Structures are given as structure tokens and as C-alpha cells.
Amino acid sequence: MRKMIALAALLAATAGQPVFSQGFPGMNSGPTEVGVMEVSVADVPFTITLPGRAVAYEETEIRPRVEGLIEEIVYTPGRPVSSGDVLFRLDSETYEAALASAEAARDSAEAGLSTAQASYDRYAKLEGVGASTSELEAARATLAQAKAEVKSAEASLQTAQLNLARVDITSPITGIPDVAQFSVGSLVTANQSDTLTTVTRLDPIYVDVSESSARRMRIRELFSDGSLSPGEELDVELTLENGDVSVEKGTLVTPGVTVSTTTGTIDLRFEFPNPDRMILPGQFLRVDITLGTTQAILVPQRATTRQSDGTLTAFVAQDGKAEQVTLTYSGSYQNAWIVTDGIEAGDQVILEGLSNLRDGAEITTVPVIINAEGVVEDAETAESE
Q: In CATH, what number is assigned to the domain containing residue 52?
């Protein structure tokens, strides 16, 4: 042991550095030099994090409205389609024949109307001279029936036109079509229960989250007593399943007005732009909502230690000694804890020299700061630069 101490003293002397008792507990060579930073009250964004799930902005199931054989599948699965684009085409021969028949029936009804109108006009001129009143009434009834037959024929013609148009099954929305569930040659029926395919609009996309009713009330109280200052608008960020944060900001669509009787939560819906279609319906996501700012003390996480019982502790410089304190915190911001108790503004928290530091140890302090990269630097050196 004596040889080890002597060797350490020799190495330190060669390097022009003192031998610290920190490395050798049995030695006493003076106070330990530590880096300290004065903590102060700062405006901290008040952010809540809620788990959520992506929901399609629009989604529609494609079904046939007329019966027929699938003659052609026009679209390519996964390739975007616009509203009105043809997805499936059915055999149209039957409906073309029905349309021709309806046109002929309409023409026949119009011809009958012309005949009935001419007959009625003739009897109207001859009433009381060459035609009786009963004959005029009969002509009037025939004319009314002819008019009704024309309207019926026109309705049948319109139905035939619609049925022919419906052999081209189109997309009612802009989106991404799924794989077809039927193949060419399959017989489909009008309004069948089985879907031909599904079209989903992915941009924008909804994200549904649930917020605790109790926490919502606590946040309202913070706004009421002035502890929380509201921002100009909600700042809503989305964290993807891989941990990446989406660059697109969200907006609140549905604030939620009822509380679930089983979970005690309120359902909220947010809308996010999704131009690259990175977010797909059904994905589990995380929504970070910044409601405003609150004043709090930030303690760098690297200055703290988690004890075995779960408590969070840190060392502060007090009258030339290191004093260990227990911290109470309400969350984190960037690389710091938002501390609500255990430390006060103006205290000097120890950032460097924590190795083997004990409560009550004598110390000498050197002011330090944490730069934007999270690296501790000497305060005087950083200011001179």
C-alpha cells in the first residue's frame, strides 16, 4: 500500500498536479475542487404527453351498385387515385340493351302524347258543334294518361342511363386503394356485403388520444391561479413509433366534451399533415402538447443521482461543503429536471467532481456552464470565447 501511495505521489509531482484524497480515501490533501452552476427560476414550457393511435382521415369501402361480371380491374393497388377515377369496370352489354329499350319506350310514349294532344285539340274546337262533352272529357283523360306515360318512360330511361354509368365503379374520394378482393370474371351483385376494395385517404391523418379528466381539471386550476400562462396557440408534436419527431405540427379537431364512464378519460382528436404517408392508420404514436409556460427551477440531469429507493438527489455547495439534497420534480425539459422542491433559486448545484463526493465533504468551487451540446465548460473560459 505504501508503494502505491508513493507511486501516486511521484506521478502527480511529475505532472505538476496535487495528489487528491478523492482517489485515495485514506489520504487528506485538502478540499475537493468541483464545478458548480447557479440555478435560477426560468420560464419552462408546460407539456403533457398522451399516447395515441392514427385514424384515417377518410376511408370508404367500394361496392358495386349494379349486378354484373367484372370485366376489368383498372387501378393499381397502392398507387394514389383521385375522386372519380375508375377502379372496376363491369360487363355493359345488358345495360346498353336496357338503355336502348328505354329510349324506344320514351320515343313511343312521346308519339302517343302527340296523338293524344292532337285529338284533344280537335274535340275542344268541335265541342257543342260536332263533338259532345263526353267525347271531350275522354280525350282529356287520354291526353293526361299519355303525359304520365311519357314521364314514366323518361324515368325508366334515366334509370337505364344510371345503371349503364354504374358499370364503371369509381372512387368517391382521393386516396390509396387496397388490393382487390375479387378478380376479373367474378360475378358481383348490387350493394353486396363483400367489398371490392377499400380506398383510404392518408394526408392529412387523424390521431386520437385520451386525456385523464382529473388531470384536465388540475390544468384548469393552474390556469386559474396563474401558475400556468397559456400560449398563443397549442404546440402539438407527434413522436413516431421509431422515436423520430414529425416536423409537421398538429391542430386540435375535437376537444372532447364527454368523460368515459369506464376509464374516466376524455377523447381528443388531432389532425396532422402526412405528405410522405409515413403515418398509417392503426399505428400507436405519442402526442406532446405544449399548453403554455410555467416558472420553475431547472436542474441538469447530469447533476442528479437516482438512489436505490427511487428518490432523486443532488449536491449543492453550501459554506465550503457539499450538501446532498433530495429533489421533488414534476417532469423534465430538454436535459434537465423541472424541480418543485429541494432546491431554491440562487443555490449552486455541483455538476463536476461528483465522483466519490460525500455529504459534508469540503470543497472549492469553480463556476461552470452547460453549452448547447450538453457539455460542461468553465464559465470564465466560455465567456472569454
A: 2.40.30.170
Asked if 326 and 335 count as a contact pair (C-beta separation under 8 A), the reply is no
- Phi, psi torsion values for 102, nearest 5 degrees: -65, -35
Between the alpha carbon of residue 192 and those of residues 9, 77, 89, 188, 289, the distances in Å are: 91, 21, 16, 7, 44
Residue 129 lies in a domain: yes
The crossing angle, in degrees rounded to 10, of helices 133-165 and 93-126 is: 160
Q: How far apart are CA 180 and CA 90, in angstroms?
A: 14
pLDDT tens digits for 46-93?
Answer: 888 899 999 999 999 999 999 999 999 999 999 999 999 999 999 999
DSSP letter for each residue of 101-118: HHHHHHHHHHHHHHHHHH
**Full domain range(s) for residue 371:** 24-39+307-384
Q: Which residues pair with 305 in a beta bridge?
A: 313
Same domain for 175 and 87? yes
The CATH number covering residue 74 comes to 2.40.50.100
**Residue 176, in any domain of the structure:** yes
Average pLDDT, the chain: 84
* 86-88-94-98 Cα dihedral, nearest 10 degrees: -30
What is the mean pLDDT of the segment spanning 330-358? 85
Phi, psi (5° rounding) for residue 346?
Answer: 100, -20
Q: How open is the CA angle 282-287-42, to the nearest 5 degrees? A: 170
Q: CB within 8 A of 150, min separation 6: which ones? A: 106, 109, 110, 112, 113
Residue 5 lies in a domain: no
Q: Quick check: 284 and 52 in contact, CB under 8 A?
A: yes
- Judge whether 243 and 285 are in contact, CB under 8 Å: no
Question: For the domain that residue 116 is a member of, what is the CATH number?
Answer: 1.10.287
Residue 124: helix, strand or coil by DSSP? helix
Give the closest residue to 270 by CA, choosing from 241, 233, 232, 244: 233
